[in-house]
Amino acid sequence: MGTHEERDVARHRFDVADAAPVLLDARGVVTSWTPDAQRLLAYPAAEVVGTGVTGLLSAEDAARVPELAERCRRDGGWAGLLTARRKDGQPVRVMVRVTPAVEPGGPPHWLVLLSDMSGARGWDMSRAVLEQMVTDSPVGIAIVDADLRCVWSNAALERYGGGSARERLGRRLAEIQPGIDSTGIEAQMRRVLETGRPVVGYEHVGQVRSAPYRETAHVMSFTRLDDDRGRPMGVYYTVVDITERYRARQRLALLDRAGEQIGRSLDIVRTAQELADVAVQDFADFVSVDLLESVLRGAEPEPLGDTDQVPLRRAGQQSVNPGVPEAIARIGEVATYLAGSPPIRCLTTGRSWREERLDPLAREWATDLLGGREATFLELGLHSVMIVPIRARGVTMGVTTFFRRRRQEPFDEDDLSLAEDLVSRAAVCVDNARRYTRERDAALVLQRSLLPHLLPEQDAVEVAACYRPADELTGLGGDWYDLILLSGARVALVVGEVPGHGIDAAAAMGGLRTAVRTLAALDLPPEEVLAHLDDLVARTAREEGGPPSAGAGTRTAGPGCVYAVYDPVDGRCTMASAGHPAPAVVLPDGTVGFVDVPQGSPLGVDGPPFEAVELTLAEGSTLVLHTDGLLARAGGAGAVGADRDRLRRALERPASSLDLRCRAVVDALIPDRPYDDVALLMARTRLLGADRVADWDLPADPAVVADARKEADRQLAEWGLEELAFTTELVVSELVTNAIRHAEGPIRLRLIRDRALICEVSDSGATAPHLRHPRTTDEGGRGLLLVSQFTQGWGTRFVPGGKVIWAEQSLTDPPA
Predict the structure, then answer these.
(1) What b/e sequence results for 99-119 when a residue is b if at least 16 CB atoms lie within 10 Å of its CB, and e otherwise?
(2) Of 261, 677, 667, residue with least CA distance to 471
(3) Closest to 243 measured CA to CA, from 175, 183, 180
């Protein structure tokens, strides 16, 4: 087989010092079997020498022997992996190297070197092969010593700049690439040197020498290199450029944030500011959002010409610098752009515009800058710009301008595409907010026009009211309140609400409020007023195709209302409720309680009859009527007892006036933009003193009419109202005579000196008198006609046990 020295040369040549040599003749017969081969395959030499090599291989590889023999003769050798079989039948994966071995003067032989690969990681490669792999690899590879100085790098690393492999030798990373975070990277290297644990997938972002104005991203992996004694001698690391993947990930993250943070409200200015906030830091250094005036009002934008000098209002802006020093206008101020300037062209054409490098000496496009200054882009520090129109549903509402200042990389086409995607998402939110603003403003105008601008002056109660519309997420609702003057110096206090939001709810509220005032004019008791309202709502729902009424006792989402009547003569208050919170009462000593009024079904529901409750209020008591929005919570309704406790605590706080107390209660219980509409009506009771009321019981005798006139004249003289004596005598005569003629039982005459002089005659009759227009030949029937002509108003109201006919004369207008 050759000398021992030749075998050593072969081992050194093939870098396989631990290989087991075997010698074959030209026919593939084993001619020499070494102890190493016996240890590898367990065959003794006597069993192998003289047999063919195919018997030592697996059936599959044995079939390859003729082909491999031909390759050896053609190429002068062969190397590769084969599967041999041990004597016990177990397969062994071996690395095989075949090379010619010619004895002097003898026939040709082949030297076969077998290496056990069962514990190897793969193909045993030579140094030249390994060097070829790392040198020609497209992945950047470098090795640093224990002092973190470069000792080797491949050609792929040169594309990042920093010099050739020779120029990098002996230099630290900060010297090679000063634009990256060398401190952080070297910290990873030191950790690998200390622990021996590799670091894989370490990402960093910075500027490399090959792209000094462009932010690039790389992923690195670090592995420690040890010498023959296991001592750390350096770090082997790889570098892969992942800039495109990093930028794509940034874009997706930015769009995700935009989806989460833009459009969280239906406020136009807030939405514009959210757009500016999202785009700054990770994408742009300064962003401004300018909207047309009409958009902020909720109106449709008007078409513009390129030659127009268009005023836009700054709706949002943000900067990486505190105080936004680049801004030409503050939030809410007007920024007027020059005709033909890029913002105006984008506004009129609806197309975006990008400039990689702004002319540093060019003037800013807007006029009327802060402080009257004119600034160049150099002074503002801005060098790259994109302008994207804010368009939704084919309408351009404004422009968004993106600037770069700190980061030197200019905006590119990918950035413009991202900006357009970002603005298009925000534009839908802005347009939704614009449309909502228009509807909300219209509904608010409608509702405020339907609510009482000024509550009528009267002496029965001191009154204060507060209305606060819902926030933009729920929309304007249909809450209302009212104070209605009734006969006999009485007043009706009403608070109600219509379900739903927007213009429909406001219109429905207006119709319901008008119906309440109409029914109040009939002087009906509270429970009858609600009964008529219930019929009206149910009939309207049927006519408009609404849902059918629920069964008896079922509470559905229908209008609610509480109706209370207060009489300042005796302090009595009668009220009824239709699916509405019970009123509270603050007594003169500050004690707060709640009226135990029967809770009827909401209006329009086929529920049980409404019931009224009557109570007597001490003078100075405050009746508190409110809609359920006063106690509503954003997280859901709380327990009734807890809600009442909150209201009780708010009402117990002192205030210098009823108006201040009313506002303080609303401020204490709800935010500025509540979840639901809130209407609060507070009425502090007054009593008419005995010196302002006079009454007489009269027998049903026609002769008493003259006595009634005399008593009335005497009372008017006592009140200093002698100028009303003639008309009052006429009214008393006609009303008392009418009661004696058409009714039975006791008759009562009452005069009340309020803001008008009120004359009331009550009897036990159940028939209301009617105004007639007698002919000239009729001897009677002119009494009520005269009363209607000489008084400010007259009417009839029914009370338990009879009726009251009343007439009022103004104390401010001149007597008729």
Answers:
(1) bebeeeeeeebbbbbbbbbee
(2) 677
(3) 180
**CA 432 to each of CA 619, 763, 777: distance values in angstroms, whole numbers, following the listed order:** 51, 63, 72
Q: Which amino acid is at 365?
A: W
pLDDT of amino acid 508: 79
**Sign (positive or negative) of CA dihedral 737, 738, 740, 741:** positive
Cα dist from 769 to 706, 742, 758, 808, whole Å: 22, 9, 18, 17
* Each residue's pLDDT tens digit, 31-47: 999 999 999 999 999 99
Give the integer Cα–Cα distance in Å for 730 and 495.
Answer: 39
| Chain position carrying tokens 């005579």 | 737
Say if strands 572-578 and 599-600 run parallel, antiparallel, or are unpaired. Answer: parallel
Per the CB < 8 A criterion, the answer to whether 735 and 790 are in contact is no
Count of other CB atoms within 10 angstroms of residue 441: 14
Alpha carbons 735 and 806: distance in angstroms, whole number: 8
- Secondary structure letter of residue 466 according to DSSP: E
Given the structure tokens 């040197």, which residue do they identify?
Answer: 193
Cα separations in angstroms, 173 against 151, 181, 632: 12, 9, 63
Burial class (CB in 10 A: 0-12, 13-18, 19+), 728: buried
In degrees, rounded to 5, the angle at the alpha carbon of residue 154 between the alpha carbons of residues 150 and 158 is 85
Amino acid (1-letter code) at residue 66: P
Number of H helices, E strands in the chain: 22, 33
Strands (E), 3-130: 20-25, 30-33, 78-85, 91-102, 108-116
**Confidence bin at 557 (pLDDT 50/70/90):** low
- Which two three-digit tokens encode residue 513? 């409020």
Averaged pLDDT, 23-31 = 91
Express each pLDDT in 283-327 by its tens digit: 999 999 999 988 888 888 777 665 566 778 999 999 999 988 888
Q: Which residues lie below 8 Å from residue 810, measured CB to CB, with a gap of 6+?
A: 756, 792
Q: Which of 622, 619, 579 is nearest to 602 (CA)?
A: 579
> What pLDDT score does 374 carry?
62
Count of CB atoms situated within 10 Å of the CB of 813: 9
SS3 615: strand
List of long-range contacts for 215-222, beta carbons under 8 Å, 24+ apart: 215/243, 215/407, 215/409, 216/241, 216/243, 217/241, 217/242, 217/243, 217/245, 217/246, 217/247, 218/242, 218/243, 220/185, 220/188, 222/188, 222/189, 222/192, 222/198
Decide: 204 and 184 in contact? Cβ < 8 Å. Answer: yes
Q: What's the CA gap between 680 and 662, in Å, rounded?
A: 7
Strand-strand pairing, 140-145 and 478-485:
unpaired
